[in-house]
Amino acid sequence: MIQGGQNRKNVPLYLCRAEFNGGIHPGKLNLKRHKGCHISWGGTEHEISSHYNWEYAISELTTPQNQNWQPANGGSIPSGALRTGREAIIGNEVPFSLYTCRAKMNGGTHPGKVRPEFGGCKIPYGGKEHTVYQYEVLINYYYNIINEDDDNITINSINTNVYAKYLFRWKRVMIDEAHDLIKNIPVIHYYYLWLIFFLNKLRQM
């Protein structure tokens, strides 16, 4: 998993993204408290807990993660920014791209989403959506995980044959990396995770 920040108690916050209202939105995951990916939308913090609708990022290379963030402000998107989501597709219009950002809030650093029209990094925190004007944007020094000409971004849609080209890939929580989560999840969430895994097996029968 890729850590994108931490809260004021120094608990890691990992990168995730989730489908919501027709779009795919970058967000954050706290293994000690969250049951799903936390995103911001419409002024509110939302927890997306359906196992079909969110996934977390997994590191594929050994490049130090701190080298993969570039400072930005006012809605600017640095060159080489990794497109990790999109707004909803409306008719034949090309949807706005969304990029993963992180910003400081209340003693922590929280992952969120950005596009130029936002004017800053929008992060989910305390039940609300906050816009922070000084932030960092996730950069990929290798290849873009999403084809810039493809507007049909979907959850878990990345071609498995080209994973090695990317800085990271996305993984649904209930598949083969589930054991990496279990050791960090409280007991009550442990049972929740195995329920997700069991339901997925039933779906595949």
Descriptive terms for the model:
single chain, about 200 residues, mainly beta, 5-stranded antiparallel β-sheet, 14 strands, globular
Please characterize this protein's 3D structure.
- It is a single chain.
- Strands 1, 2, 3, 6 and 14 form a 5-stranded antiparallel β-sheet that branches. Strands 7, 8, 9, 10 and 13 form a 5-stranded antiparallel β-sheet that branches. The chain has a two-stranded antiparallel sheet with strand order 4-5.
- The protein is globular, with a radius of gyration of 16 Å.
- Residues 142-151, 157-167 and 174-180 have low confidence and may be disordered.
- Strand 2 (12-20) and strand 3 form a beta hairpin.
- The chain has helices at residues 178-182, 187-204, and strands at 3-6, 12-20, 23-29, 37-41, 44-48, 54-59, 69-73, 83-86, 97-105, 108-114, 121-125, 128-132, 134-138, 168-172.
- The protein has 205 residues and is mainly beta.
- The chain has 2 helices and 14 strands.
